[in-house]
């Protein structure tokens, strides 16, 4: 959600900032902009839409300067117009911002009354105006920023640049992540390691309330109270710099195809022979009497699948809630409650707020892809999913890695609680170890899926059906399809269809049935017959020979056979490929679907 970069360089920075913004574009692509200081003069270029428009603009109107800040926007306050694009400028101050200033209306009317009128509809411009007002009152840039920060309520990551100051950049963080780096002669600020990876090999994550004053000579970090502080340096993982499509047309395709390897890496990390070892800290499930799982979007569907696993294997009651509801519901929690927060980015604002609600009331376990994230840092135990950087806005490999970690946790829970025998545990581990190979086989149905996707692209509505742990997968399949192809899709529990949604069924509505041959298969086939009797065009995704003849479905996709309990990990793959190829057939942007952004750091 909004990408930020800042550089005090020893070279022309605009092209380098543009390149860094390219790596951050998955965070937002409504508009983009860069401001620089050249010969002491602050100047900026902004453009609506994807970064390529800013890049074109810079070809026609280059932006010189060795100091600069850049931004790629996901609009919160105000439409995606050039006037609303960052950097925002007020007199001698330019600022880029990720987050939301909650008291901006109050600040804005106060500033307007003092003749500091805004041009844009954004909350960010208010920050620049406020800072300008302090400078006009005689404050130095550092004092002006400090006073500005003291007035801001809400969440922000900010970088300031000043007219007449070519060796000064000020960064601040509250609620939204921000990192700084320095190589002895140059200073950098970025939203994450991906932004800074090719520029520096070590970075420092600012902590809540921190702000940093940077020059080419060095930097100083202050905490919220203004005291100078030291923060630990982190080596930037080599992989963070490798943001390429690996020969695929889209990041999403690459990430779908990486799944066998990343699931394998995840299993190896947590399995020691037949035993699940968490390494990052122990959780003893024998003292747990209830699990609550909290997440948003795709991550919440991973939790819904895991509910079936925890309840079946470990006989422990599980509640699942979306984070935006959980926190306001104020659910009772106790020290025997294990609260599990699942998040790819580890920065999702609602999930983080829900975690903070649970903190101190329950044991906090998080499952994250970014192990330096706020959610990881604020948990009692944080388990990485080791999926590697995920750039496609639609989550794919993170979902199957979340499922993998949750599957292993369910086995650990069963072992700790004495509900899973050593022999059964061993059999489950053996089955899970086969998943990477099975996922590879599932990827081989891509041609078949592509063919079905061409028909699906014509549809206005699509239904997904699943039973048991495949029901949340039906929800996930529908989410994936709607977010990247813009086709309306809904997921239902197969048995629920005749309680209402069947009224939607006619020849124009494809129905995707996710149904491995388990003990519920016969029931799902009956539900399919009910749909087909009403003209519904069923795409059956299942395993076993003679699927087409036996089911009389409109189309079938034959999957490798997997142990029923772990089938959701496998069946995620055709659901992802179906969404991807439908988006390709429709000509939508699979990696950067409209209105969305990765890492939702606002509520
Ligand atoms: C959908 C998708 C989103 C995220 C959700 C939570 O494909 O990616 O629904 O799953 O925004 O994000 P994280 O996992 O970063 O908390």
Describe this protein with a few key phrases:
globular, Rossmann fold, Glutamine--fructose-6-phosphate aminotransferase [isomerizing], seven-stranded antiparallel beta sheet, 20 helices, Glutamine Phosphoribosylpyrophosphate, subunit 1, domain 1, alpha/beta, 37% helix, 27 strands, binds fructose -6-phosphate, 603 residues
Describe this protein's structure.
The protein has 603 residues and is α/β, with parallel strands linked by helices. It folds into three domains: 3-235, Aminohydrolase, N-terminal nucleophile (Ntn) domain (Glutamine Phosphoribosylpyrophosphate, subunit 1, domain 1), CATH 3.60.20; 244-420, Rossmann fold (3-Layer(aba) Sandwich); 445-591, Rossmann fold (3-Layer(aba) Sandwich). 37% of the residues lie in helices and 24% in strands. The chain has 20 helices and 27 strands. The strands form five sheets. It has an eight-stranded antiparallel beta sheet with strand order 3-2-4-1-10-9-11-15. A seven-stranded antiparallel beta sheet has the order 5-6-7-8-12-13-14. Helix 11 (349-358) links the parallel strand 20 (337-343) and strand 21 (363-368). The termini are close together. The model has no long low-confidence stretch (mean pLDDT 93). Bound molecules: fructose -6-phosphate (F6R). GO terms for molecular function: carbohydrate derivative binding; glutamine-fructose-6-phosphate transaminase (isomerizing) activity. One of its GO terms (biological process) is carbohydrate metabolic process. Catalyzes the first step in hexosamine metabolism, converting fructose-6P into glucosamine-6P using glutamine as a nitrogen source.
